[in-house]
From TrEMBL:
CHK kinase-like domain boundaries: 126-318
Gene3D superfamilies (alphabetical): 3.90.1200.10
Record-linked Pfam families: EcKL
Official protein name in the record: CHK kinase-like domain-containing protein
SUPFAM superfamilies, per the entry: Protein kinase-like (PK-like)
Length: 407
């Protein structure tokens, strides 16, 4: 733990926004950061502000961008942080206002409060409430989430998507502006050699580890992901007739859970709105499902989609709209094969990253130099190949048996 004097001046200046400039009235304590690899485009610093007179505490999570030129050259760092700043300062207040007067159970409140931001180049930063101090925790990323957890996740995404559909109906011109007011960070990343190499290398590795456990005819169909993961991803990310505001980055580390005394999920929060965009709700749902689930979960896809759509319908009704007009269930099911490909491509890469042993974990500071991103370091990192094989087998067979594979 560090004292007041150890706080970089730039962070200290941002913290002043939280306490209306009266930072000298607070003792500032810095806690241990996230583990390596838990953040992708930046770092988290956990801070407690304790008022000197009253002892009252504010527990904060300061999310700050990587500032190194060699990292920013190869990754959409600034774009992603500006997206999240836009979400919290411009978009979320408008969405939240739509919920006024709506019964609490239909409200989307599943995100941390944002208390301050800084958009200065190389010093992009958000100050958020520290959810860990509120009893929320990340799920062990090496373990698959179960059906009950996905029921709750799908309900929460239903509320977010319903709120955005209501915004689309009530403020159609403003909804269309989301595209021009944000940067499509995912699509921009696919133009970079680093992500292109990552998608290809991970698909090749997936094919290799499955050769001994999956029939050749299945693997032959899977080869399209080796040949053109980027093209498949971009096609899935394209606009749909029934588009919503997407969370955009839905892997399990971007969901924090609170549990009751019996170990059941009592609440959850979505974090990291850096990759927000507009697209099919299937993009969010397939991403969270395929990058965190197992066969047990995939077998319940229809059940989960019905739970999602019921929650969407209930929320839209409370907001004064009809889901049969804004997102019919059959459209949702029909869109799955096209737009689930985003989740497929990302799951292949993310499960590999999840399985890397902690002592082998890399972040962008390890693999980026001035000229290129060294994917060989990532490729050579030791990981739990057996569990990865099992996860990929579950995914690939699910896609094949349900005719969800691309093509």
């Amino acid at each position: 733990m560090q004292s007041n004097k150890a706080i970089p001046q730039k962070i200290r200046d941002t913290l002043k926004q939280v306490v209306n400039g009266a930072i000298d009235n607070y003792e500032v304590r810095v806690h241990d950061p996230n583990q390596k690899g838990e953040g992708y485009l930046g770092q988290m610093v956990f801070i407690t502000l304790q008022e000197k007179g009253t002892g009252k505490e504010l527990n904060l999570a300061v999310k700050q961008a990587f500032s190194e030129d060699n990292i920013r050259k190869h990754n959409p760092i600034r774009d992603a942080f500006l997206n999240e700043i836009y979400f919290y300062t411009e978009l979320w207040p408008k969405l939240s206002k739509l919920q006024e007067g709506v019964p609490e159970k239909y409200n989307f409140h599943h995100l941390p409060k944002c208390l301050a931001v800084n958009s200065e180049d190389k010093y992009e930063r958000l100050v958020l409430e520290n959810l860990k101090q509120e009893g929320f925790a990340m799920h062990d990323k090496t373990k698959a989430l179960d059906v009950k957890m996905y029921e709750e996740i799908f309900k929460v995404y239903a509320k977010l998507h319903a709120l955005s559909l209501a915004y689309k109906q009530s403020h159609p011109e403003d909804f269309l502006k989301i595209d021009s007011d944000t940067i499509p960070a995912w699509l921009e990343s696919t133009k970079k050699k680093a992500l292109q190499d990552s998608f290809r290398i991970n698909a090749e590795n997936c094919l290799k580890v499955l050769e001994s456990v999956v029939d050749a005819k299945v693997l032959e169909k899977f080869k399209c992901y080796v040949n053109d993961s980027v093209g498949i991803f971009r096609e899935a990310q394209c606009k749909a007739r029934y588009s919503v505001l997407l969370h955009g980055d839905c892997w399990s580390n971007n969901v924090m859970f609170k549990y009751d005394s019996l170990g059941n999920v009592s609440d959850l929060k979505l974090i990291d709105f850096q990759l927000i965009t507009v697209g099919s709700p299937v993009c969010d749902l397939s991403y969270t499902l395929y990058s965190g689930g197992s066969k047990e979960v995939f077998d319940q896809l229809d059940h989960l989609l019905r739970i999602y759509h019921q929650a969407l319908s209930d929320t839209l009704r409370a907001l004064g709209y009809d889901s049969n007009q804004l997102l019919p269930f059959q459209v949702l099911k029909g869109d799955w094969k096209v737009h689930c490909q985003k989740g497929v491509v990302l799951a292949i890469a993310i499960w590999k990253g999840k399985m890397i042993y902690q002592e082998e974990v890399l972040d962008l500071t390890d693999i980026c130099d001035e000229d290129e991103v060294d994917m060989e370091k990532y490729l050579n990192a030791k990981y739990d190949e057996e569990t990865y094989r099992e996860r990929m087998k579950d995914l690939v067979l699910h896609l094949y048996e349900n005719d969800y594979m691309y093509g």
